[in-house]
Design goal:
Elements (H helix, E strand, L loop, with lengths): L8 H5 L27 H5 L25 H8 L1 H28 L4 E3 L4 E3 L13 H5 L3 H25 L7 H21 L8 H37 L6 H30 L3 H5 L4 H44 L1 H14 L17 H5 L2
Antiparallel strand pairs: 1-2
Helix pairs in contact: 4-6, 4-11, 6-7, 6-11, 7-8, 8-9, 9-11
Keywords: Membrane, Transmembrane, Transmembrane helix
Protein name: CWH43-like N-terminal domain-containing protein
Organism: Ophiobolus disseminans
């Protein structure tokens, strides 16, 4: 039996193809007829490059001369809550410092002889004086301090309320109440600045009118602010139930209740002293009723200022926690249900929890729940 020469591998795999050594082969590799080999990692990442090269890697980030995010921006973003509460906190510190300065200014004055018995007593800072001076009585002697603090207070308080209105814009419930509260806060700030230009002894009537207007505007501001808090809490209770509450809203609610309970009495006595007794001679008579009323009114005005300071602390608390309230409110979708309920009332259907409006006519929520 003749000995056969073994055929080359390409003839065994491709029997019908003629091959010569001088002919450039274009045949695929034998492994290509089987399972395809695994793709290298660099081909998956850089498909246009056969091998990973340093030129094919993404370039390293180059330090910019003017970076978009600086250290100050990073620090501001991480401390945004305290920064938002700074205006009201600063206003609280300024007003409290001014009250302490006015008290020390009056108590450290040189005593002078008064009355027929020539007893030494502190001089009267203004005509409407009985036991303790009004804040504006000392303010007319310390004009620069009084005017500077009042202007700073007006700017800080107005900015705080405008900022609170802007940050609570995603909460559609009670939006008009929030706008009204901010408007009266700005009006109260304007009246506070006007008080510094209307001295109590030189222009008593305009001063009293402006002072009462400032007190009334701040009272209305607090009422509408409380109304916004109540509207938001009720809308939340309708959707989530009474037992699931937002802590920031509840803390703000009870703090403002405490401020209102503390300030209502001093506000009434302050207005009684301002409008009940305006004759300086009658006020100077220690046996008269006006003397006692003005004495209570003067002390009540300082207590009312402390209540005002406490209310500014409540607004600072609201600004500190406003992001949490807005995030919880938006994630719960409270405003969507409120819009559905209003649409249902206009169409004469039951609002429920917002599902009734999306159902066909004649179909209720009970049809969805089943038997």
């Amino acid at each position: 039996m003749p000995r056969t020469t073994p055929q080359p591998w390409w003839k065994r795999i491709y029997p019908g193809v003629r091959f010569t050594p001088n002919q450039p082969t274009t045949l695929p590799h034998p492994h290509s007829l089987r399972a395809p080999p695994p793709t290298p990692w660099y081909s998956r990442i850089y498909p246009t490059s056969p091998l990973p090269h340093r030129d094919h890697f993404p370039p390293r980030p180059i330090a910019r001369k003017l970076p978009t995010t600086t250290r100050i921006d990073t620090w501001t973003q991480s401390h945004v809550r305290p920064l938002r509460a700074i205006p009201n906190t600063l206003a609280t510190v300024l007003w409290t410092t001014m009250l302490l300065y006015f008290a020390s200014w009056y108590t450290t004055r040189k005593k002078v002889p008064t009355g027929p018995e020539a007893k030494l007593a502190l001089p009267k800072p203004c005509h409407a004086f009985s036991l303790w001076p009004y804040i504006s009585c000392v303010g007319q002697h310390e004009k620069l301090v009084f005017r500077g603090v009042c202007i700073a207070m007006a700017l800080l308080i107005s900015f705080s309320f405008i900022q609170l209105t802007r940050l609570t814009a995603p909460i559609k419930t009670g939006r008009r109440l929030r706008f009204t509260s901010t408007a009266f806060a700005i009006l109260s700030s304007v009246a506070l600045v006007a008080l510094t230009y209307e001295l109590i002894d030189e222009m008593p009537l305009p001063h009293l009118i402006t002072a009462s207007g400032q007190i009334f505007a701040m009272f209305v501001c607090k009422c509408f602010d409380w109304g916004w808090n109540m509207a938001v809490r009720r809308a939340w209770a309708r959707k989530m139930g009474r037992w699931r509450r937002v802590r920031a809203l509840e803390v703000s609610r009870w703090c403002k209740i405490g401020v209102a309970a503390f300030s209502v009495g001093p506000a009434i006595f302050t207005c009684l002293g301002i409008y009940g007794c305006q004759n300086a001679d009658v006020i100077a008579d220690q046996a008269s009723t006006c003397n006692r009323i003005v004495a209570l009114s003067e002390i009540a005005e300082w207590e009312l200022s402390l209540g005002w300071v406490a209310y500014m602390c409540c607004i600072a608390y609201d600004l500190y926690h406003v992001d949490d309230v807005v995030r919880i409110w938006v994630s719960a979708g409270i405003d969507d249900d409120v819009v559905y309920e209003e649409a249902a009332k206009e169409d004469g259907m039951e609002g429920g929890n917002g599902v009734q409006v999306l159902l066909p006519l004649g179909m209720g929520r009970g049809d969805l729940e089943g038997p």
